Amino acid sequence: MSYEMLEKELKDLPEASLNDLIEYIKFLKFKLLNAGDNLSDASSAAVERKHSQRKLGVLQGTFVMSDDFDETPDCFKEYM
Model confidence over 38-67: pLDDT tens digits? Predict the structure, then answer.
């Protein structure tokens, strides 16, 4: 499909559908990046920056589970 055909189709869309189309294009770009396909350097650099801000294990050691976590509480034993 050429850009001219795409432009013609865009002109026929109602205004409300344009926002949906823009979101779908963003989704397709994200999907392509995760599949390892190349987009323009600017697009891929922007997505990489967004993901590079997230760090795994930031909350590691913050939550502590009690030793008896898997045991049934006394108030529920009558239902078992």
Answer: 555 555 556 566 556 677 788 888 888 888
What are the helix (H) ranges across 1-80? 3-12, 15-34, 41-52
Q: How many CB atoms lie within 10 A of CB 33?
A: 16
Q: What's the number of domains the chain is made of?
A: 1
Length of the chain, in residues: 80
| d(C-alpha 66, C-alpha 48), whole Å | 38
- What range defines the domain where residue 10 resides? 3-79
Q: Phi-psi region for residue 14, left (φ > 0), alpha (ψ -120 to 50) or beta?
A: beta
What is the rounded CA–CA span in Å between residue 64 and residue 62? 7
